[in-house]
Amino acid sequence: MEDGTRRPLALVGLSVVDGKKTITKVVSDTLGHFDAQLPKNGAYKLIATRIGYRAFTSERVEVGTNELVKMEVFLAVNAIPLEPLRVTARSQLESEFLTSVGFYDRRKQGVGHFLSGSQIEKRNAVVLSEVLTTIPGVKLLRADRGVTKRSEITFGRGSTSMRQCVPAVFIDGALARQGGQPRPNDLPLDDWVMPRDIEAVELYHGAAATPPMFNQQASCGVVAIWTKRRK
Fold first, then answer.
1. Is residue 86 part of a domain?
2. Who contacts 37 (Cβ-Cβ below 8 Å, separation ≥6)?
3. Other Cβ atoms closer than 10 A to 40
4. What is the helix (H) or strand (E) element at residue 106, kind and residue range?
């Protein structure tokens, strides 16, 4: 029972010991009752334990052959000291892949435009150009191939020649398409990667803002695409 309230305690572990030897173990029922069978007469101690209560050890009790001994055990409540719980929360888990290629470091520098995979998914875009045209300074450029309708993007701001200057495309750090004037055999941006396969995108408007790893193709801007890792 609980000391002070005399409330029956279930699931109390009780051990009958003879010296250092445990003779039997039982558990109290929902009414706090227990019954321990002893193999022979002798002097025994009873040890009672339950989480949240101080352990109890009785004095030695002499038990004769075929003798029934009744005992009441009272357990005092005991606060259990716990190690402090420390919780570290992050608003969004960083991708190991994007960390390894320096994506987050470049984003912290605040130069260029950056889109994560989750941001792209929220747009529900069918093609990448639909996502990138939400970025200031990005314009749509038709790039139809036969009966297939496709869109391209450009960073042009003024003359017709500048509006026709398309950005270079890097995929997972490798140059996939050179930038400059559109060439008849070039694949439009939308034909390279589908939005659902993209982990992140970096976009740079010109050479001055483009990191060294992409700068050799930065005259008309750069679109750097990082694809999702296959697990």
1. no
2. 24
3. 9
4. helix 103-108
With CA atoms as reference, report the closest residue to 36 among 1, 71, 2, 74: 71
Could you tell me if 137 and 24 lie in one domain? Answer: no
Q: Which residues of the chain have pLDDT under 50?
A: 147, 159-162
Domain contains 166: yes
**Tens-digit pLDDT profile for residues 39-85:** 888 899 999 998 888 888 999 888 888 888 888 888 888 766 666 76
Tell me how far apart the alpha carbons of residues 49 and 147 are, in angstroms, rounded to a whole number: 81
Q: In whole angstroms, what is the distance from residue 77 CA to residue 2 CA?
A: 7
**CA nearest 223: which of 96, 142, 137?**
137
Closest Cα partner for 128 from 119, 137, 32, 136? 119
Residue 220 to residue 170: CA distance in whole angstroms: 13
Residue 218 resides in a domain:
yes
Domain CATH for 42: 2.60.40.1120
Counts of helices then strands in the chain (DSSP H, E): 5, 12
Instruction: Determine the Cα–Cα distance for residues 32 and 20; give it in Å rounded to an integer.
Output: 26
Residue 147: the pLDDT is 47
Q: Which residues contact 126 (CB under 8 A, 6 or more apart)?
A: 195
Q: Which domain holds residue 117?
A: 96-227
What is the reported pTM? Answer: 0.56
The residue among 79, 113, 145 that closes a domain is: 79
